[in-house]
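Posted in: Structural Biology > Protein-Ligand Complexes

Title: Requesting predicted complex, nicotinamide-adenine-dinucleotide in pocket

I'd be grateful if someone could produce the 3D structure tokens for the following input. Sequence and ligand are given below.
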Amino acid sequence: MKNICVIGTGYVGLVTGVCFADLGHIITCVDIDPKKLELLQSGKSPIYEPGLEELLERNIRAERISFTDSYTVGLDNADFVFITVGTPMGDDGAADLRYVRAAARSIGESLSKPIVVIDKSTVPVGTGDLVTEIIKEHVRDDIPFAVVSNPEFLREGSAMRDFFNPDRIVLGSSRYEAAEQVAALHETLGATIMITDLRTAEMIKYASNAFLATRISFVNEIAQICEKLGADVKEVARGMGTDKRIGPHFLDAGIGYGGSCFPKDVLALHHMAATSGCHPQLLQAVMDINKDARYRFVTKVEALLGDLSDKVIGVLGLAFKPNTDDMREAPSVDIIAHLQEQGAHVKAYDPVAIERASELMPTVTFCATAYDAAKEADALLIVTEWNEFKQLDWGRLREFMRTPVVVDGRNLYEQQDMAKHGFVYWGVGRGVPPMRLEELGQPEYVQALASDQT
Ligand SMILES: NC(=O)c1ccc[n+]([C@@H]2O[C@H](COP(=O)([O-])OP(=O)(O)OC[C@H]3O[C@@H](n4cnc5c(N)ncnc54)[C@H](O)[C@@H]3O)[C@@H](O)[C@H]2O)c1
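-- Reply #1 --
Done. Output follows.
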């Protein structure tokens, strides 16, 4: 059993704290947000993450986890301290390190015994050295400490599973024995542990996220070509993915990546590359393609409905991906803003993200069910691939909707099946809807597009 302090109780910090508590360690989480602390102290999770609240309650009851705003309390007796504060997108594209700097300073000021500082936040290469310097500046001279980089790879929506079953644990430090102590902390997880130097560990995180984002943009570019040439990107991805050199993951064409990591991390890596004299052409293309994917989705709605002013658009899904309420960089935000700019009235439903979404999009009408969002709609858009959108009652929806038009940004349905239900359906990279456009009074160029495909 170890005493562990976790700085920051966001998606990463709270999951880290709760899971280490569940492994039997004693955890003190420190945060500067009083609202979050109040919720956490009462056993409620401020974020939606499957399984998290149950584990939180269990470990509070067992007195293995507690929450405070005091670094002194958090660090008192701690063997390890994890930094898990946010590193949002800065104005110039670089990661904004103000929270990391503040955390390092507070750690330095509050340390009263030797400790291993573990940086789990995603930080630009070289930040481990910066954290070391800041702590050194503020800590008492007689207290030794070491800094270890331990990038986090969990995915929101399956964060608990990812914590307990990691593909690998990466540790980087200039002090091998400190990295070994952190390795021992993770021993019970039985994962592959890689120990390397600080800068390499920091780069592994950026390179991994940039590579996954690249796969998504790659398949979205292929989708665009498929749509023009009459191929089916879903089948293309299936055919590619069975090649062991390629693998099946992150090959779903759609409206691009979002969330709190890929957009800011690709941009931050691009910034790091550009400011160090490199020419990051691929990273630029990845970002451009991602932006286009959202834009192309909206142009499909315009192509099918014509002028959007006073049209009612139902949106299914707001969170950037299923099983989370995280709205950071969610494609839904750009898509809805664009629809509203064109004069559309947007009704939206999401199983868990409405509260967060309503802070960002106060003029949207939020609905209690997917069916409410579809009522009197001129088109229904599938934006997040929540499971509950995979088995909708299209007969019922057909009765509710003003015009039977579905634009699917996640390729959840087959065009032929939707045609049987009487819908004009347009997915991503799977052909243009071939029928009934005239009946809907569609612009001529869409009819022409459709006849090209038949
Ligand atoms: N969210 C993810 O899926 C994910 C996955 C892997 C890595 N990461 C990385 O992990 C880091 C944290 O991400 P997140 O999504 O958990 O962030 P978050 O914004 O959800 O949480 C950060 C928390 O830190 C707190 N905080 C800020 N400054 C503080 C300070 N000085 N002292 C104490 N607490 C402070 C905030 O109040 C907040 O509760 C980021 O660098 C992110 O890139 C996130």
